[in-house]
Amino acid sequence: MFFEVFVEIIINNLKKNFLQGDKSSEKKLVVLDGINVTFEQNKSYAIIGASGTGKSTFLHLLAGLDAPDSGDIFFSSSDKTGLQDLSKLSSEQKDAFLNKTVGLMFQLPYLISELTVIENVILPGLIAGKPDSECKTRALELLGYLEIAEKANCLPDTLSGGQQQRVALARAIFNEPKFLLADEPTGNLDPKTGKLIVDLLLKCRQKWGMGLIISSHDPYVAQCMEVKFRLENGLLREV
Question: Which of 48, 16, 51 is nearest to 31 (CA)?
Answer without folding.
Answer: 16
